[in-house]
Amino acid sequence: MRLDYIVCLVQFVLSYSYILEYQLYRMQYFRYHRDVKSVNLFRLFSDRAKGNVDRDLWMQQWSVIENMRGYQTAAVDTMGADALSRSSNAKDANFRFQTLIACMLSPQTKDNQTSTAFDNLVALVDPDPLLPSTLSLKSVESIEQAIRMVSFRSIKAKNILEASKRCLSEYNDDIPNDIDELLSFKGVGPKIAYLTFTIAFGNTIGICVDTHVHRISNRLGWVHTWHLSNGPEKTRKHLESFLPKERWEHVNGLIVGFGQTICSAKAPKCSDCLLVKTCKYYNNKEYMRPKKNVRLQVGDNLLDTVDASD
User: Which of 32, 47, 34 lies closest to 295, judged by CA?
Assistant: First the structure.
């Protein structure tokens, strides 16, 4: 009887080991295929984000936009950061600092409001010129009052005052000539930094992508980043991957003006646009509709997110 007990025990252990081995195999199998599926999804969205850009097509579209931009003046042409900084006829360091201030005022703000705020700051330090040494003497309350018409005025006022003090103490009444140092300023992201460098130093390190460039690049099919998290930054990287570098400095002014005059966000004037035959958005209104959230994950690493709203 003792022998029978031992035999049953051995059979039980063997059976349990087979079951355990089978469960481990299943776990490895499903984990492998889950990760492969996630990686494939990531590759799918990465490839899709780059768009399917035909060189002849985008060059043709670029030329057509240039022609349409010649028909009428856009707000960016007279009240954009470049126009504002040049309007005061400032030279060298003065010009560079005023460029930075104009760029810091502009995010999420219409050009006419940016222009008014910039003029108010010039008046705030009058009769002195708008410099770090003069603006840094003003209170954050007076700066906020001067720029009250821009969005996020409280935050921008604090950032502008802090930038003025840093430019005075660390850069001899000038702005940094290193892009990474400029990016360390509060309120200065890639868009502001690249635009500042293009205007102030004539050195285009990267493409300045704002809401107009992001929207129109997606509408034309140059990129597919509309529903991706941090879409404008992904748009910048993909535009830089195929646009010749000599065109980078012209992207913002060209596309922003096109967005302000014809290809607006809510009511684009498609009847006036010469790109309707090749515009993906015009030919398929579902092209940029909101999509359901998709979380792409390999193991514990979140790779990307597709936002559920525009």
Answer: 34
- pTM of this structure: 0.71
- Ranges under pLDDT 70 in the chain: 1-52, 85, 87-90, 289-310
Q: In the chain, what are the domains? A: 75-200 (1.10.340.30), 209-306 (1.10.1670.10)
3-state class (DSSP) for residue 118:
helix
- Can you tell me the distance from the alpha carbon of 240 to that of 249, in angstroms, rounded to the nearest whole number? 11
pLDDT per residue as tens digits for the range 169-224: 999 999 999 999 999 999 999 989 999 999 999 889 999 999 999 999 999 999 99
CA 73 to chain CA centroid, Å, is 25
Q: Is 296 left (phi over 0), alpha (psi -120 to 50) or beta?
A: beta
Q: How far apart are CA 62 and CA 59, in angstroms?
A: 5
What whole-number distance in Å separates Cα of residue 116 and Cα of residue 263?
A: 25
- Asked if 191 is an active-site residue, the reply is yes
DSSP state at residue 287: G
- Give the Cα separation of 92 and 202 in Å (integer): 12
Tokens of 226: 């509309």
Q: Closest Cα partner for 297 from 37, 19, 2, 121?
A: 37
- Cα 79 to Cα 56, 90, 108: the distances in Å are 33, 16, 14
Q: Of 191, 237, 266, 291, which is the active-site residue?
A: 191
Distances (CA, A) of 51 to 31, 57, 277: 31, 13, 18
